[in-house]
């Protein structure tokens, strides 16, 4: 009779071999509470295994050699564990968890409190069709996926994405055009200019399959549907500072023009007045000179007349 192995840690277990031949295709080992699976094993007898279910075990650490011999595996279910802890403390090993499973087509890592997925995580899994990363704590998505030509669904629902930064958008843009992305139930915001590119991307991106479920938190901390109205509002928010600057520049320009025009007009008026004054002064002087000459001529004429009389 086999012992009950639930609720145990498998620490530093090495050189495990299961020889023989089995036609078993599906193996369900869920809900056993195995926090630590530090095992290096050769499951040669299970060479035909296609499905392995390790869900709901509270797994915090899973040695990358524990099930690496199951090269025919097509479905790996690891939902409802604590692999986020391993992703933090043993990042390199976490990135290699699926390296030997080149035939893997369905991977479920949902509900694992994972903060980030290493860049190289799925390099060997070119046959992946469905990747479920929902209900984790992802704030960005930066793993390589251009090579996942068979991918049909990438589930990112229920994470902690507030915006789609440049790296995340680049990753999602590299998802094959035949694939669909589920991205609702995240913590997207739509209250500031920095949110505009995210909202625009989600509205325009045809890969987003759950567009009707997308919601974001506005400036009043209320969740609203992601719509073109929200996009237009954010565009106006982004353009407002520029419009204000343009208004200020135009106002200052007009004021400066008025000042310059006024100064120029005043200068011209003053100059004209000065010119007129100078002209009048010259005319007065000429008039006076002319008056003096006339008096002098009259005087001379008077002298001439007196001499004639004498």
Automatic annotation (TrEMBL):
Keywords: Glycoprotein, Leucine-rich repeat, Membrane, Repeat, Signal, Transmembrane, Transmembrane helix. One of its GO terms (cellular component) is plasma membrane. InterPro entries: Leu-rich_rpt, Leu-rich_rpt_typical-subtyp, LRR_dom_sf. Coiled coil: none annotated. One of its GO terms (biological process) is signal transduction. It is found in: Membrane. Its main location: membrane. One of its GO terms (molecular function) is signaling receptor activity. It is a single-pass membrane protein. The keyword Acyltransferase does not apply. The chain crosses the membrane at residues 246-270. PROSITE patterns: LRR. PANTHER family: PROTEIN TOLL-RELATED (PTHR24365:SF541), TOLL-LIKE RECEPTOR (PTHR24365). This is Uncharacterized protein. It comes from Dreissena polymorpha (Zebra mussel). The lineage of its organism: Eukaryota, Metazoa, Spiralia, Lophotrochozoa, Mollusca.
């Amino acid at each position: 009779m086999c012992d009950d192995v639930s609720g145990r840690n498998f620490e530093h277990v090495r050189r495990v071999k299961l020889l023989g031949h089995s036609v078993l295709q599906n193996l369900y080992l869920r809900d056993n509470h195995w926090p630590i699976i530090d095992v290096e094993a050769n499951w040669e007898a299970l060479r035909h295994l296609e499905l392995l279910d390790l869900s709901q075990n509270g797994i915090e650490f899973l040695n990358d050699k524990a099930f690496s011999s199951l090269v025919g595996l097509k479905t790996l279910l690891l939902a409802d564990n604590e692999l986020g802890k391993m992703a933090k403390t043993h990042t390199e090993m976490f990135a290699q968890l699926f390296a030997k499973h080149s035939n893997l087509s369905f991977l479920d890592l949902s509900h694992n409190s994972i903060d980030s997925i290493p860049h190289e995580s799925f390099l060997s899994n070119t046959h992946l069709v469905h990747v479920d990363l929902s209900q984790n704590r992802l704030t960005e998505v930066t793993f390589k996926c251009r090579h996942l030509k068979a991918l049909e669904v990438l589930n990112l629902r229920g994470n902690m994405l507030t915006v789609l930064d440049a790296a995340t958008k680049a990753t999602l843009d590299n998802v094959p055009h035949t694939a669909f992305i589920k991205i609702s139930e995240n913590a997207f915001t739509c209250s500031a200019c920095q949110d505009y590119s995210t909202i625009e991307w989600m509205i325009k991106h045809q890969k987003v399959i759950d567009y009707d479920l997308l919601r974001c938190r506005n400036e009043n901390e209320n969740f609203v549907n992601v719509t073109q109205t929200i996009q237009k509002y954010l565009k106006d928010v982004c353009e407002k500072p520029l419009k204000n600057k343009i208004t200020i520049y135009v106002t200052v320009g007009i004021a400066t023009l008025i000042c310059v025009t006024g100064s120029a007009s005043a200068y011209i008026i003053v100059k004209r007045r000065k010119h007129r004054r100078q002209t009048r002064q010259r005319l007065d002087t000429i008039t006076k000179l002319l008056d003096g000459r006339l008096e002098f001529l009259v005087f001379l004429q008077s002298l001439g007349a007196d001499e004639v009389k004498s």
